[in-house]
C-alpha cells in the first residue's frame, strides 16, 4: 500500500521527477505526460461525481479507481528487469467491463442521427470534458508506446481508448438517454 508522509521532495524544482521504479526522468518525458493526462481525466471525473447519483456515481468512482491503476501501470515502465514488487497493470477484464457497461447503457439510447455538441445537463457537459481529456491521454499513451525502448501494454492503450467511448455513452445517458443531447446542425450559422 502507498504511504506518503512527505509531500514535497524538491526534485521537481530542477525539472525532474522519478518513476515508481526510482528511475529519474524529465518532467516533460512522454511517460510523465501520459500518466499526467490520465490524472487530468481523473480530476475531471471528480467534478462529474459532484453531479452524479446512484449507479452512475458508482460507475464513475469505479473508473476513477481504474485510472489510478492505469497511472500506476504507466509510471512503472517495463524495462525487462525483475522488480522487488509485482507492478500493477491494467488487465483485460477492466477493458471488458467498460465494453459491457457501454453496451448496457447504449441499449437504452436511440442511435445518433447527428453528431452532438458537448453539453446538455451539467453532468453531461462535465463528462464530455473528461472524454476530451481522455482522448488526449490516449494519444499520449499511443505516442509513448510507439517510442523505441518504451513498452506500454496493449491493455493500457485499449483501456484509454474504451474509456473515451464509455465517457461519450455515459454522457448521453446523463442527458436523459440522449433526449437532451444538443445536436450539431452543419452550417447553421452561415
Describe this structure in words.
This protein is mainly α and 190 residues long. It has one domain (26-77, 88-183): Hypothetical Protein Ta1238, Chain: A (Up-down Bundle). The chain has 5 helices and 4 strands; from the N terminus they run E-E-H-H-H-E-H-H-E. Strands 1-2 form a two-stranded antiparallel sheet. A two-stranded antiparallel ribbon has the order 3-4. A hairpin with a 5-residue loop joins strand 1 and strand 2 (24-26). Helix 1 (30-51) runs antiparallel to helix 2, helix 2 (54-75) runs antiparallel to helix 5 (154-174) and helix 3 packs parallel to helix 5. The longest helix is centred in the last third of the chain and has 25 residues, at 122-146. 31% of the residues are buried.
Query: For this structure, what is the CATH homologous superfamily?
Result: Cobalamin adenosyltransferase-like
Q: Label the structural class.
A: mainly alpha
Give the integer mean of the pLDDT values: 94
Number of domains: 1
Q: How much is the radius of gyration in Å?
A: 18 Å
Largest sheet: 2 strands, antiparallel
Shape: elongated
Strand content: 5-15%
Distance between the termini: 57 Å
Secondary-structure element order, N to C: EEHHHEHHE
Amino acid at each position: 500500500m502507498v504511504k506518503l508522509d512527505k509531500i514535497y521532495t524538491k526534485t521537481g524544482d530542477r525539472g525532474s521527477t522519478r518513476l515508481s521504479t526510482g528511475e529519474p526522468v524529465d518532467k516533460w518525458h512522454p511517460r510523465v505526460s501520459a500518466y499526467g493526462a490520465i490524472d487530468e481525466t481523473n480530476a475531471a471525473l471528480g467534478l462529474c461525481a459532484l453531479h452524479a447519483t446512484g449507479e452512475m456515481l458508482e460507475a464513475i468512482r469505479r473508473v476513477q479507481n481504474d485510472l489510478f491503476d492505469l497511472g500506476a501501470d504507466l509510471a512503472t515502465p517495463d524495462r525487462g528487469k525483475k522488480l522487488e514488487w509485482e507492478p500493477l497493470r491494467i488487465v483485460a477484464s477492466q477493458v471488458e467491463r467498460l465494453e459491457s457497461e457501454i453496451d448496457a447503457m447504449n441499449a437504452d439510447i436511440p442511435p445518433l442521427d447527428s453528431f452532438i455538441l458537448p453539453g446538455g445537463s451539467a453532468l453531461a457537459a462535465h463528462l464530455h470534458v473528461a472524454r476530451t481529456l481522455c482522448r488526449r491521454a490516449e494519444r499520449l499513451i499511443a505516442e509513448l508506446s510507439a517510442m523505441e525502448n518504451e513498452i506500454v501494454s496493449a491493455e493500457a492503450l485499449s483501456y484509454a481508448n474504451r474509456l473515451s467511448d464509455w465517457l461519450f455513452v455515459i454522457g448521453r445517458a446523463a442527458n436523459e438517454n440522449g433526449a437532451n443531447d444538443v445536436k450539431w446542425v452543419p452550417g447553421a450559422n452561415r
